[in-house]
Fold these 3 entries.
Entry 1:
Amino acid sequence: MCCDGDCRPLGFLLGLPFAFLSLIISLIGIVIWIVGLLLSCICPCCLCVTVLVEMALELIKAPIHVMEWFTSQIPC
C-alpha cells in the first residue's frame, strides 16, 4: 500500500466515468475558446467575449479538477 503519497487508485477508478464526461465538456470548451479568441481578434472592445474565453478555459480544465476531487475524497 502507498499511504504516504497521493496514490489513491480507488478514487481514480471511481472518478474515471466523471472525468470522461468532463472531457466531453472540455472539448466543448475548446470550441468556445477558439470562437471566443476569433471574436476577440475581430472586436477587442467586447468584454463579454473575454468572459466567454475565461469560462471556456475553466471548462477545458474540468477533467483535471474532477480527478483531483475524486482522488482527494477516497481515504488511503
Entry 2:
Amino acid sequence: MTDLFSLHGKTAIVTGALGLIGRKHCEALANAGANVIVADRDECAVEQFARHLGNSHLGIVIDVTSKESVTVACEAILHQYDTIDILVNNAAINDMFENPAMAKELSAFENYPLDAFQKSLDVNITGVFLCSQVFGSVMAEQGSGSIINVASTYGMVGPDQSIYRNECGEQTFYKSAAYPVTKGAVINFTRFLAAYWGNKGVRVNTLSPGGVENNQSENFIQKYAAKTPLGRMAQANDYQGALVYLASDASAYMTGANLVVDGGWTAI
C-alpha cells in the first residue's frame, strides 16, 4: 500500500503555492517523494519556500493568466526535471475588501464591480485553462500524468449568506457570485479534460475542500461549525491525504471525479 501512495521521482507543480492550503499541498507532495515546483508570483518567497522543502525542489514565478509566463515556466521545469507528472491547479482569488466599511455595499450582487468579477474569471478559470493546456500537453505527449483542480464546496452549492452576519445579526458582507461561478466552472472543466485526455493516460480530478479555519471571528467559526456534521472548520492540513491520493497511483482508475472533503457541509 505504501508504494501506491509514493510519488518518488515524480515532478509536481503547485500553483498558488504560497497560500495557506498551497503550502500544505507542497509539503504533502514533497513528503510523498515528489520534486515540487513551488509556483506563485513572489520570486523571493517561492525560492525561500522551495529551500524550506529541501534541495530537490524549485521555486518558480508564474502568472497563471499569461500563457507566455506559463510556457516559460514549463520550459524551465522540463530543462531541470525532464518530465511533468502532477499539476495542482490551486491558484485562485477569493474576495477581500480593503475597506471593511464598504464590504457590505460592494459585495452585494446588485453593486458587485465588474472588474472584480472579471479578475476572478481570469485567475480562477483562465488560469486553470492555461496551466492545464501547457503542462497537461506535456503529460499527454509522455502518456501519463495527474491534474488536480482545486474547487470548493461553493462550486456545488450556493453560499449561505447568514454565516456572514455578525453577533448582532447584521450582514457584514456577502459572499459574491464570482467564487461560486468560477469554482463551479472548474468542476465541469475537470470533466471535459478527463474525457478529452483519458486515452492519453492523463487523469484529471477535482478536489473540493470546505472552509479552513484561519483567524476568522469566533462567531463565524461557530456558525460554520454548526452547519458541518463533523462540527468544525477544516485545518489547513486536512486536505493533504486527499491530495496525495489523487496525485498517486492509489487513484489510478479515477478520473473526472470530484473528491469532496468538507466535513459533511454539502451532505445536509
Entry 3:
Amino acid sequence: MRETQLVAICGSLRGDSATRVALAHTLAAAEEAQAQTTMVDLREYDLPMYDGDAKDAGDARALRREMRAADGIVLGTPIYHGSIASPLKTALDYCGFEEFEDKPVGLLTVAGGRFPTPSLLHLRTICVWLRAVPLSHQVGIPNVSNVIEDGRLTDEDTRQRIEKLGRKVTEYATLLAREPTDVPTPE
C-alpha cells in the first residue's frame, strides 16, 4: 500500500503568517502519523481572480494537480471580515469535485480577536458543496498573538488541538484511500 498523501493549503499571504505556523505543526503531526505532506503556499502560485471563462489561468492546473494527488486535505485561513481569506477562496474556486470529492478535509482558522466560528462554517460549507468530508475535529484559534510568538507556537493546549487535526486527517485519509481489497473483512 502506498503512503498517504496529505496537502495543506495556506490561505494567508503574510510572511509571518500565524496560519502557516499552525499548518506546519499540523503537517508535522501528519508526518509522525506516516503521511507524506505538502504545504501549498499560495504566495508561490499565480492565481488571478477566478473567471469561469479562464479556468486554467495562471497556475490553476498545477494547483489542481497537487490537490488531486492528495488523499487528505487541510485548509488553513485567517478570518477576514467574518469569512475566509480571498487567496484561499480563489484557490478553491479553481478546484472542483475531482480534487475534493470523498476526501477528508481538516479545517483550521486563526483570528486576531474573538473565536473564528464564521470562517470555520464557511470552510465547512465549501467542503460540503465540493462533496468532501469535513472532519468533526476542527481548530479555531482566537487571539492568535497570545499563542504564536516570533513564529513559534507557545500554547500547549493549542499545540495539542493542532496536532490532533494532523493525526485525524491522516487517519481518515488512510482509511478512505485504501483499495477495496485492502480493507479488513470481519471473520
